[in-house]
Amino acid sequence: VQLVESGGGMVQPGGSLTLSCVVSGLPISSFDMNWYRQVPGKEREEVAFISSTDHSAKYADSVKGRFTISRDNAKNTVYLQMDSLKPEDTAVYYCMAGIPHPDLEFPVAAFDSWGQGTQVTVSA
Q1: Average pLDDT, the chain
Q2: Which of 27, 29, 22 is nearest to 6 (CA)?
Q3: DSSP string of 6-37?
Q4: What is the bridge-based pairing of β-strands 77-82 and 2-6?
Q5: CA angle 73, 52, 80 (to 5 degrees)
Q6: Residue 105 burial (CB < 10 Å; 0-12/13-18/19+)?
Q7: Does residue 69 contact residue 79 with C-beta atoms inside 8 Å?
Q8: CA quadruple 104, 106, 108, 113: dihedral sign
Q9: pLDDT tens for residues 45-100?
């Protein structure tokens, strides 16, 4: 399985970016798909996920109303539209296939191997 994230960059507060994650080696149609982010020295945190069944989405409270996750199963690609960006959104963003867990709010990572991520920097 290979996950390749792209679309990051540097933007001013209030700006927008769209991240893409192209997946190869498995059909994403069979999986929930997650976006995570990580700041140096901190644990990776869930940002959003989109269901494999009804394409419903769930977001971390910190990004709710500003980020939108979507998927294109035909292209085996997941997107994260990020609007009204804040400096605290600065992080490396990763995508991952997920498996639902009955005791957790977000699906758990389905694989141990992660992509290289894409850096998002929000700064004036």
Answers
A1: 95
A2: 22
A3: E--EEE-TT--EEEEEEEESS-GGGSEEEEEE
A4: unpaired
A5: 65
A6: exposed
A7: yes
A8: negative
A9: 999 999 999 999 999 999 999 999 999 999 999 999 999 999 999 999 999 999 88
